[in-house]
């Protein structure tokens, strides 16, 4: 295969351009494993890259897409051989390294995780970076000492990819989950995932008090900004919030009061450069702790041809749950 289909992003006079085109295999970047990509997924960061709304892409030309699942085609890495089923998320794919919206990808073997037993390539991308990030958040909360006995947990951006998976996992583990969303019409959907309560995001959108009434023992936040500041001010003594997103902004207009008067912890979650051992642990937990029926309910499948259209939709808040991209 001298060329293959890919979504290519190029630098333009004003911003960037993105189009589905043929990409020359000779232009693939260095790596010791070449993978035949079967599925990818659409994340908020992908939407930013595809539309050029934020400077996500750091080199040009770029193949968009920050995660994939597929089959090893060739390998000079000692851990991988042709035919192995693998998952790859993060590591700068779609930003500094040619990414996943393509029929082929060449990456470092050290970036790959074996597809967990019981998960298909499609399942893995129904989870994707968003679900992987949600599980890293749950693991961080558990490491902090949180358990269902600690009290309710809150999930912001609840109808999005991270939020949907976080609710499904936390509810299955026995937590009382409070889902925060700006889309009241999604209340039934969120309750079907396991949310015990659904609150309007406006409850968390005003200026944060240094300390507000204690409402939850912990939470998973993919929104940032004022929302995160309010979450912290409402967290119970000794609780923790796992912060993994910035949909509302990178600022944090908070005070130190929750930290020094209630012993609250803010847990930073990074899925891009996360070391390999936590990656393996998170994928194993996803294979065991995520209800596959619920995963199916939150997933919509699109083709590579539809990615550009859906990239704009995810930024407009018109996407619910997870979007799987069928590559081949």
From TrEMBL:
CDD domains: MDR_yhdh (cd08288). Residues 15-325 form the Enoyl reductase (ER) domain. Transmembrane segments: none annotated. This is NADPH:quinone dehydrogenase. SUPFAM superfamilies: GroES-like (SSF50129), NAD(P)-binding Rossmann-fold domains (SSF51735). InterPro entries: Acrylyl-CoA_reductase_AcuI (IPR014188), ADH-like_C (IPR013149), ADH-like_N (IPR013154), ER (IPR020843), GroES-like_sf (IPR011032), NAD(P)-bd_dom_sf (IPR036291), Zn-ADH-like_protein (IPR051397). GO terms for molecular function: acryloyl-CoA reductase (NADPH) activity. SMART domains: PKS_ER (SM00829).
């Amino acid at each position: 295969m001298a060329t293959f289909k890919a979504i290519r992003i190029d630098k333009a006079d004003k911003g960037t351009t993105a189009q589905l085109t043929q990409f020359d295999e000779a232009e693939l970047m260095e790596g010791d494993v070449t993978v035949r990509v079967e599925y990818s997924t659409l994340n908020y960061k992908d939407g930013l890259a595809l539309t050029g709304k934020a400077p996500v892409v750091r080199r040009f030309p770029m193949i968009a897409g920050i995660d994939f699942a597929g089959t090893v085609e060739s390998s000079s890495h000692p851990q991988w051989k042709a035919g192995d089923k693998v998952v790859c998320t993060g590591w700068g794919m779609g930003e500094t390294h040619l990414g996943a919206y393509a029929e082929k990808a060449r990456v470092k073997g050290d970036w790959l995780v074996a597809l967990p037993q019981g998960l298909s390539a499609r399942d893995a991308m129904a989870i994707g970076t968003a679900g992987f990030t949600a599980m890293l958040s749950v693991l961080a909360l558990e490491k902090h000492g949180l358990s269902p006995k600690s009290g309710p947990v809150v999930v912001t951006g609840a109808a999005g990819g991270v939020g949907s998976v976080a609710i499904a996992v936390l509810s299955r583990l026995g937590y009382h989950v409070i889902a925060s969303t700006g889309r009241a019409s999604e209340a039934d959907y969120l309750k079907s995932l396991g949310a015990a309560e659904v609150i309007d995001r406006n409850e968390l959108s005003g200026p944060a008090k240094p300390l507000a009434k204690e409402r939850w023992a912990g939470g998973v936040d993919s929104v940032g900004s004022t929302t995160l500041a309010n979450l912290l001010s409402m967290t119970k003594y000794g609780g923790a919030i796992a912060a993994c997103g910035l949909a509302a902004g990178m600022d944090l207009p908070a005070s130190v009061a929750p930290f020094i008067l209630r012993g609250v912890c803010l847990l930073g979650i990074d899925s891009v450069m996360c070391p390999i051992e936590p990656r393996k642990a998170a994928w194993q937990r996803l294979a065991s702790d995520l209800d596959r029926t619920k995963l199916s309910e939150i997933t919509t499948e699109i083709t590579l041809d539809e990615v550009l259209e859906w990239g704009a939709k995810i930024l407009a808040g018109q996407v619910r749950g997870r979007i799987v991209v069928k590559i081949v």
